[in-house]
Amino acid sequence: MDVNYTRLTDTISSHEGKAYITIDGQNRELFEVSAITAQIELIVQERRLLGHRMTQHKVVGATGTGSMTMYFMNSQMLNQAIKFLKSGQYRGIKLQIKNDDPASTVGKQEVVLLNVILNTIPVAILDDSSDDPITFDTDFTFDNIENLESFKLPENYR
Prior knowledge:
This protein has one helix and eight strands. It has one helix spanning 76-87, and strands at residues 17-23, 26-29, 33-47, 56-71, 93-100, 108-118, 135-142, 144-149. Strands 1, 2, 3, 4, 5, 6, 7 and 8 form an eight-stranded antiparallel beta sheet that branches.
């Protein structure tokens, strides 16, 4: 029997991990996050050059985007938006996200997203048709990324 196969125990549970936020130099756990995803979208130039019948492709840049669902229970981002409206100054936030499932042999991955700008900042939410906690969704952009720690190969592949 082949020992090199994907083991369910090595997949990463989406419940295992933490996120941290830095606003105006203050770092704290992003306790109000319910779900978060971030990705890098490559900007690809496409051109068919003389003498070549196939279209060629070249990566010429990238865009950092993401989305998150948050519980409506913190006014820090609203205060930052109000500060921008009054002064014209907006300093992006920093998000640090760690996937860390202790059941997996791949270890953890930890990244820092820099100059994060939320597209939507809630001001007030009321809803008499729901008994669920108040949540909101927002997309965001980021300008740079640092990789603090990467996943390893699963134990049975090393």
